[in-house]
Amino acid sequence: MAAPESGDGNNGAARMVTLISSDNTRFEVEAAAASLSQTLQLTILDGGGGGGDGIPLPNVDSATLSKVLEYCIKHAPAAANGGAPNATAVDRAELERFDNEFVNIDQSVLYSLIMAAHNLEIEGLQSLVAKKVADMIKGKSPMEIRRTLGFPDPTPEEQAEMNAHMLEYGWAYE
Amino acid sequence: MTGEVSHPPPAKRQKKPSTTGSGASSLGDDLLHEIFLRLPSLATLVRAAHTCRSWRRAVASCRAFRRRFRATHPAPHLGLYSFQASAAPPAAFPSFAPTRFAGKDQAAAVRGGDFFLTSLEERSDGAHGWEIHDCHGGYVLLCNGDQKTMCVINPLAPRSRRFFQFSYKDMIDGHRGIPVLHKACLLLASEEDEDPFSFRVVRIANDESRLRAKVFSSDTQEWSLYPWVHLREEGPPAGSGPGSTSWLLRTNMQANGFMYWIYTTQRRMVTLDTATMSFSVDELPICRGDSTFSIGETSNGESCILYAFNDFRVRVLPREINTDGVQKWLLGKSEQLETELHRVLGKQAMKYCYGLQVVAVRDGFAYLATLNKLHCAGAKSWILSLSLETMKLQDTLFERTSQSCFYPYVMSWPSTLLGNYGFFALEYGNT
């Protein structure tokens, strides 16, 4: 599955690395895309992830990792241009369209994604998902937020604390 | 070819998982902070943080997060208090006009708070109203019309209001000529101190040539009286005889722990350093008959004077304190606002308008009132807010109904999100 690395340097075909999810699925991806992760970048610079071995990611399952890599592959070319100062407006609009579509997903996936982005230190992805969750929160009362995000019902202690706060800062709960 | 190892090395620096479990309620504090930093305003954060225990703790337990949030989110301006001092019979409460187009969460704050201050009704004797004296950092300072009871209240947390007694009799003891009592000023602990329950109230009185202060501290629950200080050095303003007490204007201003009162001649001002309680007299950097000004803070918290001139020009003068501790006002940026005014007011309203007057400067915003040509009876006057950072007028307008005093209301952090205060202190240590 893993492509053999070109023996002397990275001049030929793009260098590939293998990532292994927590459920032991192997993903082969261009090193440039995987390097969007600050965490992986160091390992890859050290020559890890090539050849037959892969980089195990014990905190990321395969469903999440495939989504993370979808993001990285899309964003890698722009990132390679150093924030893409010479990117055309069309390219930027296309990335923006991709980002909007990308986070239009089930909430549980969003949370797995943001945790993975945090663990792998992929700043752009973490920021994108954080913004999406922030947008889901704004303009809502605490109870509406609980409903929107599917929180379990408050425990009695939690309810007692909320009642005390409500007496003082009633407006925040309306 | 490398890669002969049998056990693949785990990724270096791979962080521990930020949390276990799934769902939004189990996100770790780091991730919650990242999400919260992307909320549009403090009003949104307050509602979000009260969603559940762990979310409130994520804010209350982390001062560094609050600092980051403050640095990227200006304090929300919820509206404008006004009070017509000369009205008879006196109004029961100051008037409040909410900011328009402020977003759902700020609207919820205004809707759910006691901005009409009617919760003070139970303490009113019916004969006297509550007069607004000052408004800072989310708190309103009021004095009952009988001049005996004062109150500090946060309309967003009206139950934790504080009442205290005031007497002016000892203040004017030993006065020469007619004594004048000025409005009280509210001084809060600095934003960095974050103590929502600590405040001081400073009130000054002047006679024909001297000035003295009386200070209430929320910590001691007592007033301290300071001695008379001789300050009047200018001749009396034209038209006033000897013994006149009108040498000091009644408006008070404050910025960064300094308070300011202006001479009626508009050439000088009295400065009170509230850290040392010492008075000094300074020349005003600009004194022109066609200008008005006010003192407050820029968006990064520096003291500044904002001048407005009759030709729609405004100028910011930031304060610099030299090594000897002497303050100096520098000539800062200037901006012609006529085009901006046209944009916000429209052609029709601009026809009547000949100039701008500064009514207040607060937390990076200046409040400017339009001045109308005298012959245009019925033309409305507006109050607009100007961002001192961008020098753009905001689209929020208030109609100016009378020659009132104006007090912008800026929302503050609730004690529930500040960690270690009073009833809402976190029960167990560092989380």
From TrEMBL, chain A:
GO terms for biological process: jasmonic acid mediated signaling pathway; protein ubiquitination; ubiquitin-dependent protein catabolic process. The keyword Transport does not apply. Residues 16-75 form the SKP1 component POZ domain. It comes from the Eukaryota. The keyword Metal-binding does not apply. Keywords: Ubl conjugation pathway. Pathway: Protein modification; protein ubiquitination. It holds the Pfam family Skp1_POZ. Residues 124-163 form the SKP1 component dimerisation domain. Belongs to the SKP1 family. This is SKP1-like protein. It comes from Eleusine coracana subsp. coracana. The lineage of its organism: Eukaryota, Viridiplantae, Streptophyta, Embryophyta, Tracheophyta. The gene is ga14711.
TrEMBL record, chain B:
The lineage of its organism: Eukaryota, Viridiplantae, Streptophyta, Embryophyta, Tracheophyta. Residues 1-25 are annotated as: Disordered. It comes from Eleusine coracana subsp. coracana. Residues 27-68 form the F-box domain. This is F-box domain-containing protein. It holds the Pfam family Beta-prop_AT5G49610-like. It comes from the Eukaryota. SMART domains: FBOX (SM00256). InterPro entries: AT5G49610-like_b-prop (IPR056594), F-box-like_dom_sf (IPR036047), F-box_dom (IPR001810). Signal peptide: none annotated.
